[in-house]
Amino acid sequence: MNKRSDNGFFGEYGGQYIAEILRPALKELETSYNHYRNDKDFIEEFHSTLKNFVGRPTPLLFAENVTKLIGGADIYLKLEGLANTGAHKINNAVGQALLAKKMGKKKIIAETGAGQHGVATASACARLGLECEIFMGEIDVARQRPNVFWMEMFGAKVTPVTSGTKTLKDAVNEALREWSKRKDDTFYILGSALGPYPYPDMVRDFQSIIGREVRDQMKGYFNNLPDAMVACVGGGSNSIGFFTEFLDDTSVTLIGVEAGGIGDNPGEHASRITGEGGSTGIVQGYKSIFLQDDNGQLLATHSISAGLDYAGIGPQLAYLADTKRITFTKAYDNEVIEALQLFAKHEGIIPALESSHALAAAIKIAKEYGAGKKIIVNVSGRGDKDIFIVAKALGGDVWLNFLKQEIVRIEGGM
Amino acid sequence: MNTLLKNLEAGINNNDCMLMGHVIAGFPDVKTSIEAAKGICSGGASFLEVQFPFSDPNADGPVIENACYTSIENGFTVEDGFKIVRELSSSTKTAIIIMTYANIVFKYGVQSFVKKAKECGASALIVPDLPLDHDEGLMHYATENDMGVILIATPGCDGKRIKDLSEKSFGMLYTVARRGTTGNKTELNAETDEWIQLVKNNSTKPIALGFGIQSKEQTDKLKGVVPIVIAGSYFVTVISKLKQNENVQSELEKASKALF
Predict the structure, then answer these.
(1) This prediction's pTM
(2) Which side of chain B, N or C, has fewer Cβ within a 10 Å radius?
(3) What confidence tens digit (pLDDT) does each residue in A207-234 have?
(4) How far away is chain A from the Cα of B161, in angstroms, using its nearest Cα?
(5) Could you give phi then psi for residue A375, rounded to 5 degrees?
(6) Which residue of A has its CA nearest to B81?
(7) Which one is the CATH code of A55-86+207-391: 3.30.450.40, 3.40.50.1100, 3.90.180.10, 3.20.20.70?
(8) Touching check for B70 and chain A: CB below 8 Å?
(9) A190 touches chain B (CB under 8 A)
(10) Positive or negative, the Cα torsion across A123, A100, A170, A177?
């Protein structure tokens, strides 16, 4: 199977639907990336940074306790959350930041939703000595303060976006606007496997390290291939990075898990493939499946995990959904919280809410497949960042009282 | 003859400095946007962009984006947009240009959109994120329907690209004076001067200059430099500041005349 785009397209999806002002910057990026992705020194520098700064390889863990509890297929977990800054996002941020340096760029701009890509980018920029500005929807700034705090600690400027729905898609719009305003010294680090060509190819390439490590590490547990691999899908960077290595192994069922949110009505979920309201569109520079109304306006989305709360999906994933190479399913908010609790209690890990979607689906799949089969789940991030959301969702006075007392402590200067 | 080409020819022959105005369809509501547009037309605009709002207009600045958002919130549909175009093209002599984003056209069906635009009397189309090599057949269908697509040149284009764009652009070459999005005021300085000169040297068609026009002082400076000036955010701002009980059409007519 051809894993790269053909002239920027994956089947009918992808492309470079951009205003003229961004054309020179994208052409420059295209040329530079296609040069450096084959450059021995660049690849070496990327891998040494992944090893020494990111902390790769991340472990592959046999989830023995949950496997026994469920009594189905063996469940293995790729723990991407143990990478520096807590998620797979750093792989791509480091790759693009290194490329920016090679291209002689001085300033980095990036969008972020929940803040994971923002934190990863700010961290990579701090490490590599690049100026960094992160665009983040005003609503996300308000509800993800801890990530804003760390981005600023890394020296990044965080700019709240007040337009539109004030969330991830608007942050992307604003980053694109800023890119069109700035001169030639600015590089846009896009965090997901979407946007205009060459971003979907580039992000996938930098994230493919996940799947390559899995192929190597699974030999420590078993000799043949897994029966299924499961990953959550927002824009799609963790899933495509996890799946790419196995696309040609057709005996491996690849399963993408979308955000089912709180229900199936428009605005209640972010299920582009498995939900109502998804159809082909051209938005933010690429053609793919988007949640939109009959007039072509993007629909509002909902997910308990900010990282999956986006109306579009990466073009390669849309193509792999069409060709049935990837099967899609979804997990609802409540199932996600249950999966998080189960894996925390029995395996001692704190998966991110995004990744808990994959775990929720994996629980069902493990039962369905039965004993003797093997499933690998990409736990794309860790959930420390979600403490406010999870504690609130689980209710109870303890957390609320803690917050109240914390305010008293801060105001009292104690 | 296509109204845009007719108005363009007349203006060039008279050595006029022509105006291209701009409204957001359905902002603040369908009725007011029609009255406002009529005012801009009677105030002397040779061309008028009617922007069909899109939820994610990332080539536009805050003034136009907020207006689009309001229009969508108030229930704008693409059919409303066509209704507005039909009304304006039948009641004014101004050439009506539909400006929108790729997804609005794509979702409607590119061929159907162009046909409907023609049927409603539009003269041309502007869709910034359907560029030359990714236009989904827009130019083909437009030409088939005795219309055209106006292409946009922006700083960063080299001479060859300007020539290429202008040859394929319909009637005129829409030229953005500086980097960034719509709405910010531009100064006529050495850099913009150099850019405009590069476009003039390479364009095979008359230039319509988008400049963040806000005053007569600015248009005066552009007289003789380019044949067409574009005022977009200026009009949208005037519309957004209209007070209740004001005569929309005469206020916009005044705003239009105030530029010359």
Answers:
(1) 0.96
(2) N
(3) 999 999 999 999 999 999 999 999 999 9
(4) 10
(5) -125, 135
(6) A295
(7) 3.40.50.1100
(8) no
(9) no
(10) positive
CATH, domain range A9-51+89-203: 3.40.50.1100
| CA–CA distance, A324 with A330 (Å, rounded to integer) | 16
Q: Does A176 touch chain B (CB under 8 A)?
A: yes
CA A346 to chain CA mean position, Å: 25
Domains assigned to chain B? 3-150+217-257 (3.20.20.70)
The whole-number mean pLDDT for each consecutive block of 10 residues of chain B, a chain of 260 residues, reads: 96 94 98 98 98 94 92 97 98 98 98 98 98 96 96 96 98 91 72 94 97 88 94 96 94 96
What are the residues whose beta carbons fall under 8 Å from the beta carbon of A392, sequence distance 6 or more? Answer: A399
> What ipTM goes with this model?
0.95
Structural element, H or E, at residue A131? strand A131-137
Q: Do B152 and A20 touch (CB under 8 A)?
A: yes
Q: Is A169 a catalytic residue?
A: no
Domain boundaries, chain A: 9-51+89-203, 55-86+207-391
Considering A5, A192, A356, A380, which one is annotated as catalytic?
Answer: A380
- DSSP letter at A51? I
